[in-house]
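Dear colleague,

Thank you for sharing your sequence with our group. We've completed the structure prediction you requested, and as agreed, I am returning the results in plain text so they can be pasted directly into your records. Please verify that the sequence below matches your submission; if there's any discrepancy, let me know and we will rerun it promptly.
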Amino acid sequence: MIEQIKFEIKNLLEKYYKDNGFDVSIVVETPKDPKLGDISVPMFTVVKVLRKPMPQIVEEALNIIKNASLPIKDLKSVGAYINLFVDKEVLSEKILLKCLNEGENYGNSNIGLGKNVTLDYSSPNIAKSFSIGHLRSTMIGNSIKLILKKCGYNTFAINYLGDWGTQFGKMIVAYKKWGNKEVIMNDPISELTKLYVKFHEEAEKDPSLDDLAREAFRQMELSNPEYLDLWKWIREESLKESAQIYDLLEIDFDSYNGEAFYNDKMDPIIKELEEKHLLHEDQGAMIVDLGDNIPPALIKRSDGGSLYITRDLAAVFYRKKEYKFDKILYVVGNEQKLHFEQLKMLVDKMGYDFSDQIVHVNFGLYLTNGKKASTRKGNVVKLYDVLQTAIKLAYDLISEKNPNLKNKDTIAKYVGIAAIVFADLKNYRGSDIDFNIEQAVKFEGQTGPYLQYTSVRIASILKNVEFDFNNISKELFEKEHYFELVRLVSEFQSTIEKAANEASPSIVAKYLLNLAASFNHFYSIEKINASDEKVRNTNLALAKSVRIVLNEGLRLLGIHYLDEM
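Please find the predicted structure tokens below.
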């Protein structure tokens, strides 16, 4: 609601200047020092455009705001700034009433109404363990989907499985040379990963193995029945392991169509490139020249084999037709920046008008002891093992703090998963993360369990008590620590909208940390279940509003809130 007042002031002033022949962009912000006001309007940009004295411009703007029907209690000007003090009592009552009435729907937005967004995320490679590195794409993508849904978008989540390409040629060569199906069946993915590592170790000594792998993959593309049967078996076993992870994280997708799905959809795209005279031969391979500033896109290898970008190009056209997206988000690591620049340029060069709808939602690496994990080097940390370790650590902490707690196993699961997920999502997605499991599971500090614990604390306060919102002490909202909480509650929707626009769950995560810290500060000052009825009603209404926002915010990050822990 405070954000709405800001929006109205911005529109009011911009309209006034536009009606008078001036195109001015007005900035409306929150002062860093609350003593200066609740809302501030710097007038520097207006002076530059109108070329009038600052005092005259400020006085003019003050009169415009005063004449508007806004819940403003006082206005002051300090130099180039107009500082506004809102009517805290009126505004707080409206904000909390709205939150209490709407419950989990509080913060819902309609900025995405009628728009379709396709999200491509998680996308593990089959025949490899689901590593801690895949958590980033999986959880960032899942959270963005939930945030977009909260903003009214229609979303389509795609798990674009890495189930095709030369890596499977390598796997087939390794299996035929060193594999034992009976041994593999005891622990399929671990044994297949060992074969993959062995292939790379041997290929360093014998580069001809790479040629055999390329030929094996070419045979797959030519529908060699032996190789395709082997590929199908490996794919099925890999999906079983992935399903175990997705069940634990409670994540689902609308489509599991991986790279192999597009194997029969590439020829029409290649033909179109030829017909539009975009495809050129270069040392036996087929490429599309993308200009001087970006390397050419390699569409077909010299042996006729397809490449990743060829499949991605077929996929983007298929998805445009299937999902009619207004935007397609690829939640993929920083290292793929060039790939998506090429993909956008290919679509543009082919004469289509939706290249700007292709968005690379980049993220950094998960590091362990400062180093990147690598399957081919055999130093992969399995995500399932990490989650189970976190759950065990959470169980031990819960048992220590609350030994008589019922359903400890279930609660420990949710706390352990929250620890791992939040340790990722609280960081800006573009940054690398040095993973520390012990730090992530702590109940204090900037952790998922800390947020869950804050919600549980409020739940215990609210348990078996009732309050009457029609009988509150509105004057309490004049106090700084009261109104700070109200202000944060009011910013929930604008925070979600910003996170949606920037495809950045960390915006929600950091907001929740601020909200929890503000509530815990409030809790240290005020006795919430006060003896005075009106004070008690006010405190309980405020606490419940904070819990509504905390719980819904956690849900948007893919984290369970709890009633006890």
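Summary note from our side: The chain has a mean pLDDT of 92.

Kind regards,
the structure core
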